[in-house]
């Protein structure tokens, strides 16, 4: 009788140890996979933002705002981004001089560097980019040489539904 009790205790200890070990392994692997997916999403979003900014810069050199507006509507319509806006040098959305300037856009313009923000929009976790377009030589025929950047392009990118953005 003593031997069977001892055997059950030893088996229980081994079972509990295995359970805790596999639980820790499972939780760790889920956490690592989650972080890897979020890093991949962030890198892909930065890549998409780079492509959109390059395309808008190329279209701006043509000087036809109607083509740019069609491009923005096309990018929005495909669902690649939640929203895409072009701002003027004062930080207001292009074409709406009566709107108040956006403080984050003004800060990105002043620094001349891209800004990145993680937040929620309508319950969705969103990664937003504000990318000032560099005032290159080809841009100076229309925009002049006064500023280092012409106008920012704000491109909030949607994360997968139900998947929080990193750091939220």
What report would you give on this structure?
The protein is 52% helix and 18% strand. The radius of gyration is 25 Å and the shape is rod-shaped. Strands 1-4-3-2 form a four-stranded antiparallel β-sheet, sandwiched between helices. The chain has helices at residues 2-62, 65-77, 103-111, 140-143, and strands at residues 85-86, 115-121, 124-134, 149-158. It has 168 residues and is of the alpha+beta class. The chain starts with a helix and ends in a 10-residue tail after the last strand. The chain has four helices and four strands. Residues 156-168 have low confidence and may be disordered. The longest helix is centred in the first third of the chain and has 61 residues, at 2-62.
Helical stretch tally: 4
Could you say which structural class the secondary elements and strand pairing correspond to? alpha+beta
Largest sheet: 4 strands, antiparallel
Distance between the termini: 56 Å
How are the strands of the biggest sheet laid out side by side? 1-4-3-2
Please report which band the strand proportion falls in: under 5%, 5-15%, 15-25%, 25-35%, 35-45% or over 45%: 15-25%
| Helix proportion range | 40-55%
Give the CA-based shape: rod-shaped
Low-confidence stretches: 156-168
What integer value in Å does the Rg equal? 25 Å
Total E-strand runs: 4
* Mean residue pLDDT: 77
> What is the element string, with H for helices and E for strands?
HHEHEEHE
């Amino acid at each position: 009788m003593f031997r069977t009790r001892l055997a059950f205790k030893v088996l229980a200890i081994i079972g509990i140890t295995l359970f805790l070990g596999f639980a820790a392994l499972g939780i760790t692997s889920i956490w690592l996979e989650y972080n890897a997916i979020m890093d991949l999403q962030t890198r892909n979003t930065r890549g998409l933002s780079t492509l959109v900014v390059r395309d808008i810069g190329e279209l701006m050199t043509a000087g036809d705002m109607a083509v740019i507006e069609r491009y923005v509507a096309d990018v929005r319509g495909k669902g690649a981004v939640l929203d895409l806006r072009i701002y003027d040098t004062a930080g207001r959305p292009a074409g709406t001089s009566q709107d108040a300037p956006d403080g984050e856009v003004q800060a990105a313009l002043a620094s001349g560097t891209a800004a990145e923000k993680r937040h929620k929009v309508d319950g969705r976790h969103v990664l937003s980019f504000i990318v000032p377009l560099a005032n290159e030589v080809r841009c100076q025929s229309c925009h002049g040489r006064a500023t280092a950047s012409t106008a920012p392009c704000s491109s909030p990118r949607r994360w997968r539904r139900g998947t929080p953005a990193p750091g939220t």
